[in-house]
Amino acid sequence: MKNIHIALLAASLPFVLQPSATIAGERTVTIKGSDTLVILNQRWAERYMTGHGGAVVQVTGGGSGTGIAALLAGSTDICASSRPMKEKERVALKAKTGQDPVEIAVAKDGIAVYLNIANPLNALTTDQVALVYRGKVTNWKDLGGPDQKIILYSRENNSGTYEFFKEHVLKKKDFTPFAQCLPGTASVANAVARDKRGIGFGGAAYAKGIKFAALQSDPLKAPILPDEKHILDGTYPVSRNLYYYLRVPPEGPIKDFIDFALSPEGQAIVVKVGFYPIQGKAK
Amino acid sequence: MTQKKMSERVIEGLIHASAAIAILGLVLIFVFIGKEAVPLFTSPEARAEASLSKMFLAQVPEPGEPPTHMWQPVSEVPKYSFWPLIIGTLKVTFVALAFAFPLALGAAIFTSEFAPPWLKEVVKPVIELLAGIPSVVLGFFALLVMATTVQDLFGLDYRLNTINAGIALGLAVIPIVFTVAEDALTAVPQSYRQGSVALGATPWQTARRVVFPAAFPGIFAAGILGFGRAIGETMIVLMASGNQAIPSWHLGYGFRSLSATVASELGEVVAGSPHYHVLFFIGVLLFVFTFLINLAGQIWVGRFRKKLTGEQ
């Protein structure tokens, strides 16, 4: 419970990490963007800074879109994003810098559908999830559960998770306005944990007080849980890469930090935080 | 002699300048917000996506469905109906006032008419201390602690509902209503009370029939100022409302307020897009609302002061 509160605070309030001693002349690396990636970025930054005396890495959340806007404005070195950059955003960046933005996949994540532990259902098809979030199915009874209203929890429309879910699960259709929009994945998980009739979605990394629904991309296939094996081999229907975006190819301290994040040590932190390593080998 | 005049002039000038800067700031803010909203009416691209009729008339969300009022700016076909936001803002404001106004007024009557001086010295600062609680703390409290209790108490479908957010918002409104109402009651001349008591009225009769009517304009103004505070408050509703953009007056559902919409969407929006201009237009609406309401409140207070002090 306490952990949920801390995670909620961490995810909903943009915050800055800074060591007490800053050595003059050392360049600060700033990372801004996805709330999904905030905790991972923070762990990487902490470990990197202890290994590199005097190095400073600042981590801020705010949402993938916020990070991309900051990259466009030149106010951050690295943009963390939980969705691939849109064509429009690539074009806007290229117009500013004269070259294509650099995309680096840093971790893998599955989007899990959250159910309350007391919910008798364990598996859903992706079509059912889409109908629920479009407001076409409003009672658990229609999915084979008890005769209870479905209470929907969603993310705010500035979140990469929201857009990813809309594109890959809802097939670009609109969310029902009855879905409650909460700031941060941890808030959604927390809300579902407190609501027997609730359903939510978010990274498979936040798992306290809730269970993940096993998903079937079509009713004939076996339902698949968002666990490491199925996210890494791509059989879980809703998984994604998490990215770093840069204006220009990294060099100096920025390259150093990204190399660390992609190193076996960095990817071990990925697993600890609850995401999956990008190469699918580091452990 | 002349030197003293000089220094006085400088100080006077500085004081004038600081007042002018405050007003200039206000005007500049309004000009800036207004400027960013104007392309909504001038740019053909913005007008095609978010014209006034799309903001205020029901639209067909998908072919074959009945027309509705929808707020869904991130979509294949963005939808910008203002009604869910306006209805949401008004309904939580009314709940907040219905909760806060009677409590604050009761407390004000108690402290000004019935409380012994030592108790007044305790109650007044404590209530006014409520105003010092950051709204993010009230919001967090409503989100994590109050919501479940309120849901169980009223047997509601949603944890984050209008009653829950309204009560939290009411906590932010109470100190404002209390302070202004208490001032209004205290400002009623002592001679009114003495006259009433001399005629044989009890303290309660005095408070109800003499002091309350005399202070009524001030109490009304207290309500207006509380309304203005509630309508613009952002953090509490952002956290405790559930942010459902539904055009429904149902108090058991959540809502999405104008201010929370700006707060949560402006960080992401592409500068210069129709969505961006729409958010600034919401800002203009909020600014005009609160400005008019506060102005009306201030005018009422001013009139009432004049009336009591006998100025013309």
Written overview of the protein:
Chain A is 35% helix and 22% strand. By secondary structure, chain A is α/β, with parallel strands linked by helices. Chain A folds into two domains: 4-108 and 242-273, D-Maltodextrin-Binding Protein, domain 2 (3-Layer(aba) Sandwich); 109-239, D-Maltodextrin-Binding Protein, domain 2. In chain A, the strands form two sheets. In chain A, strands 1, 2, 3, 4, 6, 7, 8, 9 and 11 form a nine-stranded mixed beta sheet that branches. In chain A, strands 5-10 form a two-stranded parallel ribbon. In chain A, helix 6 (160-168) links the parallel strand 6 (151-155) and strand 7. In chain A, helix 2 (38-51) runs antiparallel to helix 10 (264-273) and helix 9 (252-262) crosses helix 10. Helix content of chain B is 74%, strand content 1%. Chain B has helices spanning 2-37, 39-42, 44-49, 52-56, 83-114, 117-130, 135-154, 162-186, 190-198, 203-232, 235-240, 258-265, 274-309; strands at 71-72, 79-80. In chain B, a hairpin with a 6-residue loop joins strand 1 (71-72) and strand 2. In chain B, helix 5 packs antiparallel against helix 10 (203-232), helix 9 (190-198) packs antiparallel against helix 10 and helix 12 packs across helix 13. The mean pLDDT of chain B is 87. Classes of the chains: A alpha/beta (283), B mainly alpha (312). The interface between A and B is medium-sized, with 32 and 35 residues.
Sum up the structure in keywords.
heterodimer; A: alpha/beta; D-Maltodextrin-Binding Protein, domain 2; 2 domains; 22% strand; disordered N terminus; B: 312 residues; mainly alpha; MetI-like fold; two-stranded antiparallel ribbon; 2 strands; 74% helix
